Automatic annotation (TrEMBL):
Keyword Transferase among UniProt keywords: yes
Lineage of producing organism: Bacteria, Bacillati, Bacillota, Clostridia, Caldicoprobacterales
Catalytic activity: L-histidinol phosphate + 2-oxoglutarate = 3-(imidazol-4-yl)-2-oxopropyl phosphate + L-glutamate
Residues bearing PTM N6-(pyridoxal phosphate)lysine: K213
Gene (UniProt): hisC
Subunit and partners: Homodimer.
Species per Swiss-Prot/TrEMBL record: Caldicoprobacter faecalis
UniProt name for this protein: Histidinol-phosphate aminotransferase
Family of the protein in this entry: Belongs to the class-II pyridoxal-phosphate-dependent aminotransferase family. Histidinol-phosphate aminotransferase subfamily.
Length: 353
């Protein structure tokens, strides 16, 4: 069969999610809580009486952007929504990155920054975190000087390490860089801090946020970006029309209308994260890293062996077999108390042999 894929993409490996039967799912940083019953009932009513599925959705997601603007303390025209952060990352790169342009990405971090850059014809440049997986901001300045990138991605809290960049250092970087800085705050609700309301004052910075993690809408794919309105207008030039379906728009809007309930859930997840961290610190033979997200990174003696044995017990976690630096690390999503305890006891049993 003839091959039609671009030559520069032939080495690109598809991002595939392995489908494995499980009892406990702690591999994708999803919320352990499904939508509350009251919101489900409102969505059922919307299905029966509200949404006209023969009509295209509101292309600008007007009502949802207004709700997001109230939540984040910005103006609606400083907000754009998309089908998850993934789509927005791709749209941003499409807007600002041309063939041969450099894009700085922290490493290790979310792999889609580099993948979408490669697809756009750009050149992803990985900037390593330090030995403790903390941000080495000086390394970013050096990379900016060397590679003259068009875009810099910062993930804070960082996935998969869970740490945050110093806010003052971040703002200095934004001021100093003659390009676009994209701050991915997908896990921001779990650290209790955000620069979304400040970023609108800068002409060259965007914040990415999502409903998939803290708000439990991973299955509906709702993300958004915030930035100076003139910069957002530039991104709009490449945004697909009708990119977020009507049902997802309404569900996200209802989440923000019931924000107090979700703030309570977030507080519970943070409390459970700290409890799980303390329990893992008591497990012999592993190292656990503190986190400001809804997951924990742990170092184990033989990650591949532990990973396979956990699967055998019906427990899914995230491994990194293709990343030399993370070869012996696993990322554990903070689940329910019951699931977390079952994971810890199973891990102990595996390590004890």
């Amino acid at each position: 069969m003839a091959e039609f894929l671009r030559n520069d993409l032939k080495a690109l490996k598809p991002y595939k999610v392995r489908s494995v039967p499980y009892k406990i799912k702690l591999d994708a940083n999803e919320s352990p809580y499904d939508l509350p019953e009251a919101i489900r009932q409102q969505l059922v009513k919307e299905l029966m009486e509200g949404c006209q599925f023969n009509r295209y959705p509101d292309s600008d997601a007007t009502a949802l952007r207004q709700a997001i603007s109230r939540y984040c303390g910005v103006s609606p025209d400083e907000v754009m929504v998309g089908a998850g952060s993934d789509e927005l990352i791709r749209v941003i790169i499409s807007a600002f990155v041309g063939k041969g342009d450099g894009v700085l990405c922290p490493s290790p971090s979310f792999t889609m920054y580099g993948i979408f850059t490669h697809i756009a014809g750009g050149i992803p440049v990985e900037v390593p975190l330090d030995d403790n997986f903390d941000y080495d901001v000086s390394a970013f300045y050096k990379a900016i000087e060397q590679y003259k990138p068009r875009v810099v991605f910062i993930c804070s809290p960082n996935n998969p390490t869970g740490n945050v960049i110093d806010k003052d250092e971040l703002m200095k970087l934004i001021k100093a860089f003659n390009g676009v800085v994209v701050v991915d705050e997908a896990y921001g609700e779990f650290c209790g801090d955000s620069i979304a309301d400040q970023i609108v004052n800068y002409p060259n910075a965007l914040v990415l946020k999502t409903f998939s993690k803290a708000f439990g809408l991973a299955g509906l794919r709702v993300g958004y970006l915030i930035g100076n309105r003139k910069l957002v207008e530039q991104v709009y030039a490449v945004k697909p029309p009708y990119n977020l379906n009507s049902f997802s728009q309404k569900a996200a809007q209802l989440v923000l209308e019931n924000i107090d309930l979700f703030r309570s859930r977030i507080a519970s997840m943070i409390h459970e994260r700290e409890r799980l961290y303390d329990k893992l610190r008591g497990v012999k033979g592993i190292e656990v890293y503190p986190s400001k997200a809804n997951f924990l990174l742990i170092k184990v003696p033989d990650a591949e062996m532990v990973y396979k044995k956990l699967i055998g017990e019906g427990i899914l976690v995230r491994n990194f077999p293709n990343d030399p630096r993370l070869k012996n690390y696993l990322r554990i999503t903070v689940g329910t108390r019951q699931d977390n305890d079952a994971f810890v006891e199973t891990l102990k049993r595996i390590l004890e042999g």
